[in-house]
Amino acid sequence: MDRDPSLLPLPDDGPVQRPFWDAAKDGKLVFQRCQNCNHAFLPGREECPRCLKPDLVWEEASGRATLYSWVVYYRPYGEAYKSRVPYTVGIVVLEEGPRFASNIVDVADPEALEIDQPLELKIEVDDGIAIPRFKPAVAV
Amino acid sequence: MRGKVVIAGMGQTKFGSLPGRTTISLVVEAVRNALEDAGIEKDLVDALLVKPPTSLPGMMTGQKVAEAMGLKPKFGMAWDQGGGAVTGCISYASFLIEAGLCDVAVVTFSDNPKSFSAASYSAALGDTATFGYVAAAASYAMVARRHMKQFGTTERQLGAIPVNGRRNGTTNPNAQLRVPLDIDEYLEKPFLISPFRRDDFALVSDGGAALVLMSAERAKQLGVPDPVPILGFGAGQESWNVELRNDLTTTMAATSAAMAFQMAGLGPRDMDTAQLYDCFSIVPIITLEDYGFCAKGHGGRYVEEGAIGLDGEIPMNTAGGLLSETGMPGMQMVLEGIRQVRGTAANQVKNVRNSIISTQGGIMQTHGTLIIGR
Ligand SMILES: [Zn+2]
Prior knowledge:
The structure holds two protein chains of two kinds. In chain A, the strands form two sheets. A five-stranded antiparallel sheet of chain A has the order 6-5-4-7-8, covered by helices on one side. In chain A, strands 2-1-3 form a three-stranded antiparallel sheet. The mean pLDDT of chain A is 96. In chain A, a hairpin with a 4-residue loop joins strand 5 and strand 6. The termini of chain A are far apart. Chain A is mainly beta. Chain A is globular, with a radius of gyration of 16 Å. Chain A is built from one helix and eight strands. Chain A has a single domain (18-136), classed as CATH 2.40.50.840. The radius of gyration of chain B is 19 Å and the shape is globular. Chain B is built from eleven helices and eleven strands. The mean pLDDT of chain B is 95. Chain B is α/β, with parallel strands linked by helices. The chains are: A mainly beta, B alpha/beta. The A-B interface holds A 8-12, 17, 43, 68-75, 77-78, 80-81, 84, 87, 89, 91, 99-103, 111, 114-115, 129, 131, 133 and B 122, 124-135, 138, 141-143, 145-146, 149-150, 190-196, 242-244, 248. Strand 4 (64-73) of chain A pairs antiparallel with strand 5 (191-194) of chain B. The site of zinc ion has 8 residues of chain A, from loops.
């Protein structure tokens, strides 16, 4: 059955990406690490893009990250996003090295974010999907 | 390679909205016009290199185009590099000609996203739709934001790119969007995907274009009326998705330009016009930096201070570019470079000897450079 287009699209549940989304259901953010060359990366792959070996394991991230860049959607590009604008997508750099695009949430004015500012993981269940998102880190 | 191969002819269709026309029909019209411009018959064409339509990727595109024109070329192919394919095709055709493996090459492209389907422009970027990270514009906006925060590039400086394109498009009778834009109007429009507003986005356009390439010697033998020599070309592939790149503000455009400048034996100061791919406002700002027209990080200031105007240091996108002439991915930039060298442009810059052209595809995944001149 086709998913209701007003809901967020389901992620790729093929064997390569599934561990990432399964971990999110358990409240964890994971990335792949190469057992051969120690390279840490996202998204999941079948071979390490640095040494080309297939010796990969999933590892849990600390959830600490920084913001490399971000955009704010004011116009929805699809049914699913109509009720969500404005929303923020940022390029997140995990302290372990991997980077990926995720949502930045719990921000009053997303235009006032700063590059390289610290972020922390916040997994939210949205339209039935556990999604690893980020919020500004609380200063310690 | 410098000067061994020439662009013997160029042709195009109308740009804009062309309902009812197939991509094949647009290609045939463009090639017919290019052959006429070169003053040769189609029977001489023995290489056909096609940049396939963005909105209708398919199988055997190069062969379908050849069939529609009754051609059986030795070399026939479709080149998959997005907008970077235009210079990719020109480079490959140049190798074939220089190696003596083909006589006359045709490079062509058409698309009809405006009348047919523009869905490919707002598609999800891999496995990211769950995060709402959709549409190519968003990835370019990531690049723009990083450049702004890293180097202090302002919204006003981004706006200088569409303002320049629209000014030049207004006086180009072939341009699709002939409405001038001033910087205050630009800034008044709301964000669509910040930091981008409506006018930072390329047009969506129907149209086709074609080039006829041959050796300089062959052009002389055939009496081609106004051949324009290819002086240099280059390429560089960034490849990684935007969110995976370690550095968003420096691209392989620098590698591509260095190759082209070396082949041509020329540098940025020898260029009289620059036709730089401007699918989004940030792109030519970074290209100007990577090509050495200004220092890294200074691109915003450089364009704001008027360097790219028709009477500036390096007149840029003199026909309007992707923001005003047509959103076609790349070939219009080559056509305008040729017109400037021939002295037949609508917004003709004085005493043009050399033009530099950039192309790129995906989200800056591919890049190509072409230098033409006499
Ligand atoms: Zn490895």
